[in-house]
Amino acid sequence: MSHGGSIVVKALSALGASRVFCVAGESYLPVLDGFLDYPEIEVVTCRQEAGVTFMAEAHAQLTGKPGVALVTRGPGACNASIGVHTAMQSSTPMILLVGLIASHDRDKEAFQEFDLKQMFGSLSKWQAVVDRADRLGEYMTRAWHVASSGRPGPVVIGLPEDVLFPVTPDQAIARIECTEIAPSQSDVKAIKDMLSQASAPLIIAGGGGWSDQAISDLASFSSASHIPVCTSFRRQDIFDHNHSNYIGELGTSSNPALIERVKRADVILALNTRLSEMATQGYSLFSDDQKIIHIYPQAEEFGKSYMPDMAVQAHINPLISALAASGRLDGRVWASWRDEGRDAYQQWTHIDLAGGGGKWAGADLSQIYAFLQEHLPGDAIVTTDAGNFSGWAQRYLRYGRPGRLLAPISGAMGYAVPAAVSASLEYPDRVTLGICGDGGFMMSAQEIATAVHTGGKPIILVCNNGVYGTIRMHQQREYPGRSSATSLSNPDFVKMGESYGAYAARVKHADEFPAVWEQALAYDGPCLIEVVMDPAQVTTRS
Predict the structure, then answer these.
(1) Do 404 and 240 contact (CB within 8 A), yes or no?
(2) Bridge partners of 531?
(3) pLDDT in the model for residue 466
(4) Is the pLDDT at 542 greater than 80, yes or no?
(5) Is the peptide bond before 402 cis (omega within 30 degrees of 0)?
(6) What is the mean pLDDT of residues 289-297?
(7) Whole domain around residue 138: which residue ranges?
(8) Residue 234 domain-assigned?
């Protein structure tokens, strides 16, 4: 016999959870109590619920297992919703457990009451409220399965107090192994037949859930067949940037030459990407003259943005395995097409430091990223926020396993710091660099305290220009000379970082950065590097 909270934790242990993230709440005290009996699960106490779900999302991206987040009702759930939205748009498996009021108080606007299903209905794959303690194991198993299967995504489970507190018979937990949808032999043959008829084929790789083997198989197939590969928005870590077939990223910082190249492609193999607004440059990238082969694990995505000439419902890992095993295509006819794309990528990512960077009043980000290009370890994990500053990380840093890029497809500010904390806990021996603007940093800076508390060692790079840079840029484009609501007054970030227990330093000129970086690497704890930059340096194209 166990109380309901213990059954929830038992289920998490049986399903394979190793770390969970929470802000404690009285609505789910039995669950917190249950963790004491399952020490194999690390409980990370965060400082705000947005940090909880951001950390869980990052954990899921790194491990491939659902990230588990726990928050309390009402305000806690509202704060947590941003991470749920991020997980949904990033196709990341997540389970958000929300403590709720007792069932007998429902529909009276009790303290912190809210309608869970209504609130999360458009933000998650499945929403449910457990109504009986003897069904807790059933709901937890189903949540894990739904979050992981098909197109992965977040699931939200409500846990009323009257379900958690009572003692109930223990429940057997049966873990369901999610079988990935494999393509048929005829599917693979049809894909290769269409590609073989191309004169300028192109692969767009995106989405989550790629295994290391699938990434290796994609490299092998594209290399043997001379097909150029680009990645969708913030998915650069799918393909090694040093590989001769990689030609760039389709997103907010895309090479104009790459965009034109995609428009010239006659057959496009879209792998595991939704072909969303960002990747398709506002749904303007493709024409009726191009043939699209769309591979995705969920059939509902086909035709949502573009009607494909061929649609194959399959998971990316078995599909790429089958494609690589089927043999190469004779791509000699388009080898020069691949080489031209690679040359354009290398030119786009080359940082020309001629002139010494004296153009800007603050630290020149181009000089700093030239340093990071050369000195960031190949297995480093980089997390970014939303904002203009992210353009440098997207354009100039090189990714590809084991190095990773964790960035919100949803464009959520405040993601970088909690994601970096989570990544540092998962891989304590690897460099984790979280990059954010001053606006985004102030939305989640408190999670540095979580890093100190848990032993995380992320390096947080704050690009401080004193404005909401992206919005200011759009503002100046639409209303030249008229700025409103985009200026910021910031605290002393160095003192702020030191007060948390982090190493903190301010960089006013780019030539100061190397020494500060070395000190950060040597520090046994979290680090904060503030880069004071010129507000006029808004994009990599400036």
Answers:
(1) no
(2) 463, 507
(3) 66
(4) no
(5) yes
(6) 97
(7) 2-168
(8) yes
